[in-house]
Specification:
By secondary structure, the chain is mainly α. It starts with 10 loop residues before the first helix and ends in an 8-residue tail after the last helix. The chain has a single domain, classed as Hypothetical protein af1432, CATH 1.10.3210. The chain contains twelve helices and no strands.
Length: 230
Amino acid sequence: MSRNPFVSSNANTFIQNWSLDAVLKSIPATTVASPNSPLAFLHIIERLKTTPREGWRRHGILQGESISDHMYRMSVITMLCPPEHKVDKDRCIKLAIVHDMAEALAGDITPPDNIEKAEKHRRELESMQYIVNTLLKPISEVIANDFMDLWTEYETGKTPEAVFVKDVDRFELICQTIEYEKKYEAQKDLKEFLHVREGIKNDFVKRWVADALSEREAFWRNAGIESIVP
């Protein structure tokens, strides 16, 4: 398995001093000679399986979900979109799968890292351009363009599909927050993550969130400990 600097104890230092070249030097090069083999691409995105979501680690959850864990459940949630909500579900699934792909190289940058939004976007764009231009275009230019279009669509957030998947991103985080609070039996109060609900646009996703927060409220009440939703 390739060494992933984002899972080390020096992950924050690595984020602060990030460069694409440094990340690529830490990854063993593929020995496959065929230019149209997908192996180099697959080896890179394997890192999504081994890079933990940084926010949980900051709360002492050291065996937390990976980036790909988060993306997988997002993909499933998009399939639950009510049929009366007219979006292209297949495209939503693709958006969920691709939206955090750049983090395989850029890492999971969170607000406490104090990385400016523009710099975060620059790193992720540079990473995605490497994935697309260096790894995917030799396989197929059509496939490469499709990946880049999906990533850009999510980033700009202007289509109904992108808006919905951004809602799903927030809803999935809320679900995971509640699940970790239950897992740690109210020893961890993770309410700081619940602010993401404020950005949700679709009414039916807001209802999903309301159900989740009601469940959370009951959990904390039964635990005999007060946790106020911010």
